[in-house]
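tool=predict chain=A
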Amino acid sequence: MNARIGFRAGGIAAALACAFLAACGGGGGGSPTPITPQATPTPTIAPTAQATSAPLSTTTTTPINLGGVSSGGVNVVSSASLTMPSVSAASTASVTLTAVAPSGVPTPSAMSIHLKKPSTLGVPSTPLAYFAVSVNSAVTITQSPAFTVNFVAAQTGNCYVVVFDTANQANGWNGMLGPQPCGSSVSFPSVALNPPFTLAANDVYVFAIVTTSASIATPTPTPSPTPTIAPTNAPAGQSSPLPNILAPTSAPGWAPYQVATAFQFPVQSGYDGAGQTVVIIGDNPPLQSDLTAFQSYFQTTVAGYGTYNIVNVGTGQTTSDTGGQAEATLDVETVMALAPGANIEFYWVGGLSNQNFTQAYNQAITDTNKPHVFSISFGGCENSYTNTTQDTTLVQGAAAGIAYVASAGDQGDECYIGPGYQIGVNSPASDPNVVGVGGNETYDPAPNGSLTSTYAWNDTDFFSGQGATGGGVSAYFTPPPYQAGVSNASTSFRSVPDVAMPAVNVAIYLNGKFQQYGGTSWSAPQMAAMLATLNQYCGGSLGANPGTWLYTAFKRGASNFFDVTQGNNQFGTDATYYKAAVGYDMTTGLGIPYGMKVAQSICGNGGVGPAFGYKPAAQSIEPIDGYGAARDTLMPAAPHNYVQDLGARAASQSSDVTIVLRATSTLALDESKVTAALRSAGFTIAKTYPDHLVIVANAPASTIDGYFRTQMHDVSQGARGVRYVNVTPATVPAEIAPYVKGVLLDNLDVYTHL
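tool=predict ok
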């Protein structure tokens, strides 16, 4: 997930080498005797400038006030101020304000101001004032600077703050803050930076205040084919398209109407997801007040439909992950907007561990609210430790007709492992039973703005860093049948992603105000909402492993998808990356589905699903496994890269264990044998499920050490706190080994919100 504050450029690495201001030559003198005008050149008046320095505070903000400036003898700014946030270390800031571009810095123009690659501001603009800022020693800030400018004459249109990187001039001018309505005065408040940003010593940052000649217009998406099937099969619910309501000027991102219209979401043809349930997983639920405000603004409520419910999963919840709350708000509001008739369940987990996610995936199978779609905006590196447990639950959920949807990642061909990243695809998007969703670039909301960009998402925010659509080849899963014969897909391993959705600049309501977010964290819930409405169109469900029908629709007609053919997902300076191409590719998959065209391709006139087999609130499991050997079985140790070992866990300290059983035809009997053995060994059975597939138990660390012949340690996972992990491989005793597919003994956060 990327918060979009709009500050965009490459790293500023060098000081401005020349002086900001140069005195211009004066003109010739006059004479009391009239002469023709040609005889006396018009004087060239040097532009005025204001310069000052101020020590920055490590605890409070530092206002830096500047007087007025003029250009060509015309007063432009009567006064201005720049407020620097608190900094990490002692430093002094030097600020120069002028009404003309500093020497060596080009004048910003509409087509040179980049908002999101490859788009530009796209409307006429006029620069009004320039701030040149430098610090004499490096500092780190967690908030952006704030700006206030008072004009001599009122300005029209919208104002923006843009920035120029003097050390990387090829990057041009890049959007930072705005828009704000212009007038006699304009202010740009400070915004939070995540991650923090370091200002290099003696580098010069040139900020310009520019105004457009008029307010930036509403984006007009590239037209897509109009659905030919009328919504005759839709149950009661939304009977008309989403209202054409735009995002507010305080967060000029994409609004629900633009997304739904650009890609023919079935909601625009009357299929709003009524009768469907979408699960969203997270570790910090949204504020109800934010959800209410969002729905009220965009008018996405449907009378009698679209409930919202929080479900506790696992052994505890947390509210300390503020990024998790932003993630959850993005996900829930996206589904509420694009499938407003669907019921939403927020599965609240206590942490981003394998145990919690495995339990959540399995809970969906037996949930009494009958989930149809499960949206996951999280990811972490693949490993055999998780595939033996989570894949088992995902196989069964997909067989029951649940469509699992997951973000492909925001770091190109890299995946999250601890607090760091390494080359690899993200799980669970790489699982063949999950629809992996990549991201495409969008052209910013402007007269030439469009969601239907032909570029894969790959851009850089000045403060937030680079984001690039995830994609690549699994290291564990072989090609699923639905990818057979698909051009550009691997013939040896599963290819990711399957499809794409827009990933840049959505307006969400978070913590009492509209903000811009993006990333494949936005792409995944868009796809979840589309699948919920496709289910409704097709009569309730797409059947077993519903994501495979996206490939069916593609093979029946590539025009059912918007093809993303340009760009790549190179992250940083990685030597390995994937390029967009015609047809399938490992940046945006099959492309972006046109919702109603896919629906018609799969289900014709609607109302009759392409397959049967959906088992809501399933109480049984597809028997796909046999028994294992009745002998001790070695299970790998949990991955614990990038953690600090704090030593052996206290013998009496209680720890959770999650055991996934083999899907045999005698699963209920197998469960009873395993739970009896665990109780006999000193474990407490915390939870079992109606499908008998997963067992949650707990015991003191000494009991776990002895029974599984391992060593439990406490570890520090940085900002995520103290966790526990088995630092040596675990041995599953012979008495339960025949029935056990995998064992999870740790509670490490192995996922991050994307």
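The longest strand covers residues 74-84. The radius of gyration is 29 Å.
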